[in-house]
Design a protein that fits this description.
heterodimer; A: 113 residues; mainly beta; 7-stranded mixed sheet; 4-stranded antiparallel sheet; B: 115 residues; 6-stranded mixed sheet; 12 strands; 0% helix; globular
């Protein structure tokens, strides 16, 4: 059971570089999410999607972009990496419905130097 | 807006001790409440949930009751084990139909259980 798969697990970027964090789920979930986790701060929602072709901003979207061309994939793009984007990034997915739990990937640890 | 407040950690207990992690919330509408657990180096996993007032969620010996009158969802376990050492997150969804089921998280409480 793969669930939610994130790649890469670790990455170091230089300031100004760009990269894409990959996320794929094999549970046929309509909803997908990107969070960042900073020490002592809990998780903050970056972007989310309720289905292919539909995305919307979360609480902290600045500096990020997303796309959702298929149900399975939800990549997160950093265009101009900044030190403030050093964090652990989690992708999650869920079925439709307000009570449905979210299923999380193992995270991508990103450092920007 | 919605918010979740958790007791600060770390919480250090001896094995077989009783655990309480406090969680209170502020929300409009009719939120669903969740506890997630994060083991070292892993993503979050659902521990339990409650979807309406007075519901009790339970799993693996953990329990939490949705108290609307006190806007609380405290996590309890009668006898903790070393394997329960992890970070615990309280969270809510705002219950808005079509709202994307977005979660608002507390800051997390680290639990350390010692022999």
């Amino acid at each position: 059971n793969a669930g939610v798969t994130q790649t890469p697990k670790f990455r170091i970027l230089k300031i100004g570089q760009s990269m894409t964090l990959q996320c794929a789920q094999d549970m046929n979930h309509n909803y997908m999410y990107w969070y960042r986790q900073d020490p002592g701060m809990g998780l903050k929602l970056i972007y989310y999607s309720v289905g292919a072709g539909i995305t919307d901003k979360g609480e902290v979207p600045n500096g990020y972009n997303v796309s959702r061309s298929t149900t399975e994939d939800f990549p997160l793009r950093l265009e101009l990496a900044a030190p403030s984007q050093t964090s652990v990034y989690f992708c999650a997915s869920s079925y439709i419905g307000e009570n449905q739990p979210q299923h999380f990937g193992d995270g991508t640890r990103l450092s920007i130097l | 807006g919605n918010s979740v407040t958790q007791m600060e950690g770390p919480v250090t207990l001896s094995e077989e001790a009783f655990l309480t992690i406090n969680c209170t919330y502020t929300a409009t509408g009719y939120p669903s409440l969740f506890w997630y657990v994060q083991y070292p180096g892993e993503g979050l996993q659902l521990l339990l949930k409650a979807t309406k007032a007075d519901d009790k969620g339970s799993n693996k010996g953990f329990e939490a009751t949705y108290r609307k009158e006190t806007t609380s969802f405290h996590l309890e376990k009668g006898s903790v084990q070393v394997s329960d050492s992890a970070v615990y997150f309280c969270a809510l969804t705002d219950g808005v139909t079509g709202g994307g089921n977005k979660l608002t998280f507390g800051t997390g409480t680290q639990l350390k259980v010692e022999l």
